[in-house]
Amino acid sequence: MANPVDPRVHGAAVPRQKIFLSTAAALSAFVLAGCGAGGGGATADAAEDSLTVLVEAGGKAELTGIAEKFTEETGTEVTFVELPYEGLYNRLNTEFSSGSTSFDVAALDAIWLPTFADAVTPLDDMFTEEVKADLFPALVEEAQIDGEFVGMPVWTNSEILFYRTDLFEDPAEKADFKAEYGYDLAPPTTWEQYQDVAQFFTRDTDGDGETDLYGTDVKGAVETEWLATVSQAGAEHMVLNPEGEVTVNDADHLAALDFYVGLNNELEAAPPGAAQIDWAGAQNLFYQGETAMMRFWAHAYPQTPEDSPIAGDIGAAPMIGGPGGVAGVPGPWYLSIPESTEKQDKAAEFLQFAYDNNALGIESSLGLAARVSAFEQYEGEPGYEHFDALVETLSAENTKPRPATEDWQEIVDSVLVPMLQKALEPGADNQQLLDEAKQQIEAITQ
Fold it and tell me: Where in the chain is the domain with CATH 3.40.190.10?
């Protein structure tokens, strides 16, 4: 069965949340390769009525409609320079370090903002109270580095809950679940309900003595989903606090880790091999009908393969909540202006235009935006049923951005993912693993 989005193509060194976003968008880049807004190689000495926008390959898809409308209304030509994820980071790093850039606007992954904040123009004037009120709170928080706004969010994402409606709406399943657990079968909203539903649907469906349907997956090869449970646990800070103190071994992080790996270790409600399951693996399990639920990025909702045995039987609900309530981890990209470009006013005009016309991104293949009102415009429209779940998740009080630190990717790759994988081993001591993680993170950040 074809997997519509394979995050593995970018390699293990790329930030895992962005791997999925990047790969999903790569499909749209192919479709739009012939559009007039494409191109590359433009330099800063281009005509005054032009802008060069540096983007990750999939970012062009989200910005093409905006750029075309901007050209139509202002006469300013927009040229996209497209690079793969790692190539984009390297290009940004090289040019920002040199103090001379060949682009006027850049699309930045959220986790890059702390690294490049000193090289981009502050955007404080753009973030009026009206603008901030129409952006998800976590995005407003993440856009600020050392008290200055350094990027305007252009699109965002979050994990939500996908579930099989053929199972959840089956009268026999509903009756059996209520008889066993004492409440109605429905998309779970709490950790306890998620555990119940996951355990209920884990079974041998063909009578051969082997479990062939699992309630959920557990992803050991990516960190973002566990981080969401940290916020669900009620943690005020994720891994690090604003002062740089490491909080990864506190009670909330422990509760999150116990819940997260417990779905596999104690309940055995996830398929074998959880330590190596990543986004692509989880997606394949769900689309093949081997799991009843999947916590996954919202944009995948309309991308179910036509040959999937559960095509047409997928529902969407907000991300689950723990003691601290519903929470996800936002996956936004931002537009920033290099301080070195001579086209400051024109670049600022483009960023404002991108904000004003943010809903055009929903018409792209990735189908995402950053403004609350942009998503709300599609409320009730067929094919956009997942937007309610996405908006509720992104609006939740405990949905928080990842820590603003230049060391974040090293922390993820060197500490968090290995720690999760060790926690999925039989007999793991989760508190000890978190204590060790704290020491390792302190060695990186100090």
Answer: 49-157+331-395, 159-329+402-445
